[in-house]
Amino acid sequence: MKITMPDGELKGKSVDSILLEVLLDDLDISMSEVLVVRNSEVIPEDCILEDDDEIRIIQVVFGG
Amino acid sequence: MLSEDELERYARQTMLFGEDGQEKLKSSRVFIAGAGGLGCPVALYLAVAGIGSIKLVDKDVVDTSNLNRQVLHWEKDVGKEKVLSAEEKLSAINSEVNIEVVSTTIDESNVFDLVGDADLIVDAMDNYPIRYLLNLVAHKKKIPLFHGAISGFNGQLTTIIPGKTPCMNCIFPSPPKSELFPVVGVTAGIVAMMQANEVIKYILGIGKLMTNKLLIWDGLSTESESLRISKRDDCAVCGDVS
């Protein structure tokens, strides 16, 4: 799986399939701080990811 | 009915959407939560566009560190309540607009009454707990919520229509930490202008709204992208709104 981190760093990870919230936990990222995007769609934490997925992790902004 | 002065003032707009459109703006009541980086430019541009009634709520006083982005607050206003500072400028730039301000903290006990009979809510807040309250009230009153948020050179925006789009709780099911955030004034201006543009389109019933999509603004690459967003079936706020 190809992962683009919030700072733009590219990471690779081999998985059979993995729950998004487990992946974020592995990456030590809090789900509340980010949006995860696959194919231009924001996906929920209970989404199952496959090895050929490409995802991008975006920082949620909160200021106003 | 538009006065002669109003016809002259809004001549470049009535060229676009006619006197009927201008009347729609004039008869609209807009609630803006926050008189800071987003709230100032949103209120300013909605006032000059001729929104009939603007209600602005914020609890803070103007601080020198606000002046890089909160364009309704000037050096002379440091120490003054933000809503009073904003009211002064908004009334000066368009005396035809009814400006109502409340200096208070929006919370669970007052949010429903504060929003009152507004036609829509603009989210110009700096924290998610209050955004969730605005989202809840928008759904109870079945009025739209125009969300915007900023940090650094980045911003995000979506327009929430109860019953038709995902809500704040669907998109952001748990709140990120609220802390002091870095920001350049232009980021606030850019996102606020898109929020104000959404409000005007909604009132006029023209164009396509930023619904069912989250716009992500990256000021460092001068790029934006629209991400598809979905409702959560089990959403406690909008799951049963149709």
Structure notes:
The complex is a heterodimer of chains A (64) and B (242). With 64 residues, chain A is mainly β. Chain A has one domain: Beta-grasp domain (Ubiquitin-like (UB roll), Roll). In chain A, the strands form 2 sheets. Chain A has a 5-stranded mixed sheet, with no helix packed on it. A two-stranded antiparallel ribbon of chain A has the order 3-6. Chain A is globular and about 40 Å long. The relative contact order of chain A is 0.32. Chain B is α/β, with parallel strands linked by helices and 242 residues long. Chain B has one domain: Rossmann fold (3-Layer(aba) Sandwich), CATH 3.40.50.720. Chain B has an 8-stranded mixed sheet with strand order 3-2-1-4-5-6-7-8, with helices on both faces. In chain B, helix 3 runs parallel beside helix 4 and helix 3 packs across helix 8. The longest helix of chain B has 20 residues. The model of chain B has no long low-confidence stretch (mean pLDDT 97). Chains A and B meet through strand 5 of A and strand 5, strand 6 and strand 8 of B.
The quaternary structure here is heterodimer
Q: In the CATH hierarchy, what is the superfamily of chain A? A: Beta-grasp domain
Per the CATH scheme, the topology name of chain A is Ubiquitin-like (UB roll)
* Percent in strands of chain A: 35-45%
As a percent range, the share of helical residues of chain A equals 10-25%
Q: Return the CATH class of chain B.
A: Alpha Beta
Q: Summary?
A:
Chain A has 64 residues and is mainly β.
List the helices and strands and how they pair.
The complex is a heterodimer of chains A (64) and B (242).
Chain A: E1 2-4, E2 10-12, E3 17-19, H1 20-26, E4 34-38, E5 41-42, E6 48-50, E7 54-59
Parallel strand pairs in A: 1-7
Antiparallel strand pairs in A: 1-2, 3-6, 4-5, 4-7
Chain B: H1 4-9, H2 11-26, E1 29-33, H3 39-49, E2 53-58, H4 82-93, E3 98-103, H5 111-115, E4 120-123, H6 128-141, E5 145-151, E6 154-160, H7 168-171, H8 185-204, E7 213-218, E8 223-228
Parallel strand pairs in B: 1-2, 1-4, 2-3, 4-5
Antiparallel strand pairs in B: 5-6, 6-7, 7-8
Helix pairs in contact in B: 3-4, 3-8
